[in-house]
Amino acid sequence: MLNRFWTYLLYGNRFCGIEHTSKNEDEYIVVSTVKQSKNELNQEFNLELKHIKDVSEKLSKNQHAFLVINNEKVLSKSLQSNQSDPQKLVYNSFPNINIEDFYFEVLSEKNNHFVSICRKDYVDSLIKDYSVHNILITSISLGNSIISTIKSFIKEQDVFTSNALVTIEDGNVISIDKTLVEEKFYDLNGLRVSNAEILSFSGAIQSVVKNNSTISNLDVKHHVLQNEFKQTRFFSQFLKFSGFFILGILLVNFLFFNHYFNEVNNLREITTINESTKQRILVLNESVSKKQKLAEDLLKSNGSRSSFYVNAIINSLPETILLSEYDYQPVIKRIKLDKPVILDTKIIIASGESSDSELFSIWITKLEEMDWVKKVDIVNYGITSNSIPDFEIKISLDND
Prior knowledge:
single chain, 5-stranded mixed β-sheet, alpha+beta, 33% strand, 2 domains, 4-stranded antiparallel β-sheet, Alpha-Beta Plaits
């Protein structure tokens, strides 16, 4: 939960992918945005634009974005090799380049490798241009490699992108061929995406799913871009929260003094009312005192001998008798206000269950033999629904 909150605080719920591509030697920009709601992603809009300035007018200030560079500035080759080292794969694909001047990205699917390179100065200039227009690039992909992000969501074997045909078999990309493309739409977990926007869409959701399987020398660049974005985001959020905080303090200050002013007025009214309610309080106090005395009289009536009787009766019980109720000095009449409590002072009522009638009779006899018992009356002895007889006895005390 805390990690989800931190991610939302840092990235918000809107994710953007931007692809620089070309068609008929005419460069253009494809922008796709998705919005995360709980665990669902929904498309917001997809646009084709000409300039970075046009993109900035469609996105909110300091929007983070995943940049896909897939135009004529990117060189791509595919090869089959048992080699797994990305730099060696780059050198095998482009033997004469100075790798220090290029960013590269390698998508490896078993023995099929797809290598894309682009000059660092061009990539850096694009990132700087976006930054000038208040769009913060956080990650970069070259060529059609980002298609690996959504390959598991596509049912089709042949997938057109903005400038290539990608063939997927058994969940693996087996070929990427630059070709004349045809417009097609694909269903990605219920989202309808066209071939023209499929790479920018992949970049947008890559910021959420984070399942990129490519290898590149962009890791350091990505780390720098992420830190720059976090600093900008933190500063922006800090200013926003600071404004809310100051506004909150002013609001609390206003509410506090307004409340204090109202309380002073209320206290003045209460002071006036207190004079008229003082007599009522005295009357209530007298009533409480009478009730307290009534309760004390009731408690005093149950003298210290009550514990003696309880102890004697409990100790006399055989194992076959279960006592469920004991009432010492039961109230004769209903208690009423300002009336004395009338108790049957020489009586104990006891009831329970007995599973052995013979032992019950012996227990009654034992009770009658106690020097403080005048007599024992069996009020009730019968069989309940559980086949165990229940009983109720009345013990008359001799000298209470």
